[in-house]
Give the backbone structure.
Amino acid sequence: MDTVNVTRSYLEGLSTPELISLADEYGIDIPEDLNRRFIIGELLEATEELNEEKKDTMHGDGEAPESIELPESYNETTITAVMQNPVWCYVYWDFKAAEKEKMIHTPSFMSFVLKVSFFSDEDKITETFDININPSDKEQYVLLPPTETAARIDLYAEFRNSEPRCLAKSGILSMPKGCPELSLSAIESDVPEIIRLSGFSKLIRTHYLNHRQSFS
């Protein structure tokens, strides 16, 4: 591609479909539901690499590429979840600043929560568990059981004496299977006989089922 003069301000002015189209021109594979700030980051990185390659082919000194600094927030309430491996999920989110401040200063506000939901083959929710997060948090690793096949992680705000408010939902995650060492059957079976007789395996299984947020 001959033209590589792409700036952050120019990219921020494009719509998300336009960013994805531009990424296709650069040969960048964009996963579904990827946050636009990461698309912009990938485009800026690709532009910088092209500028470096062009500079290496020039005779004489070329101009140094402009320093790139992404904003801390895009002022949008969103959440994205990406599987890092068969059991660990990386979750990141952002808030619309005015909306976040209004909720935090509401007298009945309690906390923000990540709600992890698992789905059956019929797209019905089979199980859920919550992870409390601090208002300043923007990312979290979550341990998911390898026995499940699909999951979604939602961002909620909880208030006293009222229903939790759903702020954003991630896409549905297809969870690959392939980590038998972390399955409940492995926890129960792959232990010495003396530990099995003590009931320790059952204790571990109960803790994992009821307190999975402490593994995250």
